[in-house]
Amino acid sequence: MALLFMRPGCCLSDSLHTMKKSTVRSTIADVARHAGVSKATVSRFLNHRETLLSPQIAARVEAAVTELGYVPSPMAQALKRGRSRLVGLVVADIANPYSVAVLRGAEHACRQAGYLVMLFNLGNESERESAGLRALSSYKVEGFILNTMGHDAGALLETATQGRPVVLVDRLHRGLDVDFISLDNQQAIQQCIEHVLALGYRDLLLVTEPLGIVSSRLERARAFEAFVASSESSVSGQCFESAIDDDAGLVEALKALRLRAAGRPPAVVSANAVITLQVVAAVAQLGWQLGKDIGLIGIDDTPWAPYIGPGISAVAQPTDQLGHLAARCLLQRIGGLDTPARNLLLPGSLKPRGSTIP
Amino acid sequence: MALLFMRPGCCLSDSLHTMKKSTVRSTIADVARHAGVSKATVSRFLNHRETLLSPQIAARVEAAVTELGYVPSPMAQALKRGRSRLVGLVVADIANPYSVAVLRGAEHACRQAGYLVMLFNLGNESERESAGLRALSSYKVEGFILNTMGHDAGALLETATQGRPVVLVDRLHRGLDVDFISLDNQQAIQQCIEHVLALGYRDLLLVTEPLGIVSSRLERARAFEAFVASSESSVSGQCFESAIDDDAGLVEALKALRLRAAGRPPAVVSANAVITLQVVAAVAQLGWQLGKDIGLIGIDDTPWAPYIGPGISAVAQPTDQLGHLAARCLLQRIGGLDTPARNLLLPGSLKPRGSTIP
DNA sequence: TTGTATGCGTTATCAT
DNA sequence: ATGATAACGCATACAA
């Protein structure tokens, strides 16, 4: 095992190249020749095993296949069939743990169904969206799972997806009438607010990334405002859009919030994990104590949430499930399902921790 | 913008299907017909623009291409050329932020070079490794970036990669003599230890995931032991392999460490971010104070590290760079570079924080 | 300089 | 039940 540490100084990679010759992919023609049958027969054996079969021939083919270690070329199959057994996944930002979690679930579900996932990461450059769609499209992916900003929803539908099934995750596109999988934002926000209200907080601030046209952000903000408006008059709530690079702005907003609370501890509702961390940083900078000087609860649970200060309360998204569901919906559509567009909203689950318990 | 919230109850997805017909992919034959030339001419225009060209014809072809919005089918090209402009990336666990960071860098570099990344996630089931390789291989990926356990390095080299270039990231495989990109584990561990020694800690414990045959874990453990052995005799160090689901074991190990330290505060060196969080949990469970009762420094910096307790000291990996480099090395090999296998070790950078400052 | 013909590895449509 | 053959979309050797 100690050998693992060792790295032979240098050694020509000839071994690889000689190996190559001995390991060339065998084609269906090789198998046919080897079994003394025609290519068509081999193809039938592979694809229509249930029908037309002669015991002896089948055995010969099977033997040839295993001996040669034959495995069909998906590219050739895709070319011929028009189907690639590929699914395209476009994410706004792979650095976002949420995207990764969805990716995880989706990839798993796809693989179980014999599909591979082609990933395209926008890296938060939403203008690359249609480029990504086109790239994936040219590889004949059979459908798309989209978790993007959706700047060009119009052009998107028209050209890029080319009529192939699409499933949206977390972010809705205006004018795209397709399956949509997401956290139930309204319920999640409601959980957050009811939790802090029950603990006596009355002065609330929703902190979110700039709303822009991102549906999930807008939904959460709207739900927050609606819920606050319908609460008893002692409850006050505001919404602050925090730019990713403007920590100072957030600090000011927090100060203003505490001023507004006039002695009572206020509470922040964070719209996602990225913002939660930003709030944590701002609170630390102010020298305040989470759960004492200010309450904090956020959407998105994370592995580190329990260990920040007294633990950060959160509403966890069922991310794996979201990905799984997205993939399954897409695969159904690929399979020909033609029902009206569905709208799957999954509930979050509350994880109460010290940051909201005075 | 408020419209984004609205979801039309239901509406047949006919628009998509009718769209499909009008948006069928045009082939090279369509372009040829449209321009009144042969397919070969179009192909030449596309691939060998610099050579053979008749001004008028070229213009006609160009017009036809743009008008039809023609874009070549990579699958067909791959079938013909034997090259797919695809790179396969196999990761042990996409849930690991390290894997994601590498993925990020690699995908970026690949895309810049006109390559797309096919991702295969092992989900920590290392026995699926060869399956992943085969899947990717059948899609004619031109090379592999591997960040895996590497259980079957033998069978791997022989069959799965089929002589295509391979670059290893973070984890070395026994018997695979290929380019290797990684953090300089020895230097990173040295940074950790020198940091805590300089702050007066003398009783050290390295906590790592079970070593198994994972080269990076083994290297870090070996470096730790070597460095401790070469230190002055007042320094004592031990290594603890913490199973992912055995929090109790870690708690005991920490207790033993503090006993060994006999009054002086001991320090834990964590081998990666996952373990760091586990240590944080154990310390919290024990009711100890980071930086006071016990020191903690770990390999891998994270966005949340500054906000756990007094902040967790860390040695940050240049993850984006690692991914970039891995991709660039691979692309060089794909381009035909035939030098001996390279060994790229990148330095980590120390982020001192409160968890080590008594 | 341009067109014709062939093949990449499959599957599907004919025959037999 | 099995075999010959065309076609998927493209690149290229060869012919013109």
Structure description:
The structure is a homodimer of 358-residue chains. Chain A is an alpha/beta fold. Chain A has three domains: 13-72, lambda repressor-like DNA-binding domains (434 Repressor (Amino-terminal Domain)); 84-182 and 320-346, 3-Layer(aba) Sandwich (Rossmann fold), CATH 3.40.50; 185-317, 3-Layer(aba) Sandwich (Rossmann fold). Helix content of chain A is 44%, strand content 16%. Chain A is built from 13 helices and twelve strands. The first copy, chain A, has helices at residues 14-22, 28-35, 39-47, 55-68, 74-81, 97-112, 129-138, 153-160, 185-198, 215-229, 247-261, 273-286, 319-334; strands at residues 86-91, 116-121, 144-147, 166-169, 179-183, 203-208, 236-241, 267-270, 295-299, 313-316, 343-346, 349-351. In chain A, the strands form two sheets. Chain A has a six-stranded parallel β-sheet, sandwiched between helices. A six-stranded mixed β-sheet of chain A has the order 7-6-8-9-10-12, sandwiched between helices. In chain A, helix 7 (129-138) runs parallel beside helix 8 and helix 11 (247-261) crosses helix 12. The longest helix of chain A has 16 residues, at 97-112. Chain A is elongated, with a radius of gyration of 27 Å. Chain A starts with 13 loop residues before the first helix and ends in a 7-residue tail after the last strand. At the A-B interface, helix 1, helix 5, helix 6, strand 2 and helix 7 of A face helix 1, helix 5, helix 6, strand 2 and helix 7 of B. Chain B binds a DNA duplex (16 and 16 nucleotides) through residues 25, 27-29, 37-41, 43-44, 46-47, 52-54, 57, 72-73, 75-82.
